[in-house]
Fold:
Amino acid sequence: MFRPSGRALNGLGDSVQAQLYWSSFDTTLTVLDSATGVSLANAVGTARLQARTGRLFSNPEVVNILARLDSIRAVETRDTVFVSPVPPDTAADSLSDSLRVQAYALGGIPGGRRVVYAFAIFPDTGAVVTLVPNDTVFTSSATGIAAVRVRLLPGPIPDSVVVTATMRHVNGTVVPGSPQTFVVEFRR
Structure:
């Protein structure tokens, strides 16, 4: 279900009190209540939605209809990084394998969906780790996979890093299967 919002403007661009009525130009979106605009998606794709008040019509607005997220799963949950010995005057800098989750959706591949990764270091030694490319990535439109890597920067070497990956629906609820947990172990 989708509920659009809009407001009527006068010739000066100021808001005016007016009842808006909504309609769809496409079969991919059905307007269930023209007075509120509450609409139901019939298929993944795009639809054009228009508001009107009296004889004044808005420009059609494009609505992107995405596949409904069903669940996510981790592709692999453990990785071991062997930190190579380095000369005394330099520090180790190691990168883990990809920590990947795959999103599943009813009616299509859920591309372009946000996945948030977060980590905790055990023990908390002040080691510096970062997520590459960053802590928020988007699923691939071809596969539904989102991936990050853990980079160990120069400094103390932790025993392990626990990383979680979380996806949420548009309304903020957690997608089933979230969060997924990964463990990256560091060994010398």
User: Anything to note?
Assistant: The mean pLDDT is 86.
